[in-house]
Amino acid sequence: MNAGASPALGWIGIIRLGLVQTSLGAIVILMTSTLNRVMAVELGLAAAIPGFLVGWHYAVQMSRPRWGYGADAGGRRAPWILGGICVLAAGAISAAFAASLLTSTFWGGLLLSVVAYSLIGIGVGAAGTNLLALLAIRTAPSRKAAAAAIVWIMMIVGFVLTAGIGGGFLKPFSFERLILVTASVSAIAISVTALALWGLDPVHKPPTRRDGLVDSPGRNPAFRDALRETWADPQARRFTVFVFVSMLAYSAQDLVLEPFAGLVHGYDAGASTQLAGLQNMGTLAGMILTAIVGTAFGRSRAGFMRAWTVGGCVASAAALIALALGTDAFGARWPLVANVVALGTANGAFAVAAIGSMMTLASAGPKNREGTRMGLWGAAQAIAFGLGGFLGAAAVDLARLVFDTPAPAFALVFAAEGLTFLIAAALAVRVGRTDADTLRLPALPSGEFLAVRTGETS
Q1: Strands 210-211 and 214-215
Q2: pLDDT band at 302 (very low <50, low <70, confident <90, very high)
Q3: Does 105 have pLDDT greater than 50?
Q4: How many separate domains does the chain show?
């Protein structure tokens, strides 16, 4: 690990960083779920407006490499994480105020909403990128799968707590309550983040000018040079493409599954929501399983992260193709619940393994480039998430224009998503392999993700 003389984080330290992810998730869920509903229901706006704003906050996250580079150059990540949470909070409060403004001044409220969601995208990018970079640097290789699971499970905890407790304080609804709840959640998130980060980010010597792979005295490289150097690394470039393709397949399910359950299997709104809950339970189970197995066997099994990343992609593809073929052949008689739980479990295993791989690759690459690399992959993930939900829903709409009944339309889209996961699995196999006989990187500890020789893992 590129942590200098800093010791690896213990479980308490990993949980403390997980609390930061909880704080981030608590604010984000208000913007992507609660405020989305307020605009569509209480304000009666076209669904495209909140959809555009959520998509815009993903687009702004293309700036992630810049925020990671800033921490790389400065030698500390905690200020960027805390600063990102503060910017995120400012954006959230502004978005809540903009929603109230929409009731009287539409264009003024919409303009403020765009500015607010820009701040949200910047805040999520700065905090999220450097949180994962810090976790990558400070976590021992044998604990990275577990660390990835812990921080993501704790983010889901943030979703649940905010939805439950914050939702209660929003009754009866008013825009004043919305602003107050958003401000309160934001204040708590900032406080928790500041306390959780205390002492976890020791000062490191900032990087010096690099010529190729050799350090030489001088000023820090410009951001453009650092990004070009990162993209020139075959491992980083391949992993960027893998992240984009896999997350595109992962997110394309989001807006499709519940309409599928209703239109094809006759589920009412409550039943389809429960089905989505079962899928999320499966996702948690997959995350926990991967964390346990990774902690127990990751140190001794070569290529553990890659194997579970590939396996999770293949299992997700199989579950999606089963949905497509089963629905088409058996219709409502297909065991939908079991299929959806299996899909969630495969998604959870894939997600944790992929995030663990991301952490391992970030810390195994050139020193003082962890944030830039993590930012590049985070930008690819954000773009994929922004496109995935839209493309999945649009594909169903287009397919339904061709078929007389909804079942084959959904089957075609699920099959396409499964194929995308298989492409992602093929890409994951190539990550860690080089076209040359030897990769010019230092030897890695057992359990790391990168290959040292073609076709081999350390």
Answers
A1: antiparallel
A2: very low
A3: yes
A4: 2
Q: Are residues 321 and 187 in the same domain?
A: no
Is the distance from CB of 49 to CB of 95 less than 8 angstroms? Answer: no
Are 61 and 121 in contact by the 8 Å Cβ rule? The answer is: yes
**Cα 69 from Cα 372, distance rounded (Å):** 5
- Nearest Cα to 84, choosing from 45, 49, 126, 121? 126
CA–CA separation, 170 vs 234, rounded Å?
Answer: 49
44 within some domain: yes
Answer yes or no: do 52 and 98 share one domain: yes
Residue indicated by tokens 């929603």: 99
Q: What is the pLDDT of residues 137-150, one digit of tens each?
A: 888 887 888 888 89
Q: pTM for the full model?
A: 0.80
The CATH number of residue 457's host domain is 1.20.1250.20
| pLDDT tens-digit map of 317-349 | 999 999 988 876 676 678 889 999 999 999 999
The answer to whether residues 442 and 420 touch, using CB atoms and an 8 Å cutoff, is: no
Q: Which long-range contacts (CB under 8 A, 24 or more apart) does 221-227 make?
A: 223/65, 223/66, 223/69, 226/69, 226/72, 226/369, 226/372, 227/65, 227/69, 227/372, 227/376
> Are residues 267 and 407 both part of a single domain?
yes
Does residue 67 carry a pLDDT above 50? yes
Q: Answer yes or no: do 328 and 458 share one domain.
A: yes
Length of the chain: 458
Domain extent, residue 343, equals: 223-458
Describe the crossing of helices 336-364 and 106-138 by its angle, rounded to 10 degrees: 70
CA distance 41 to 46: 9
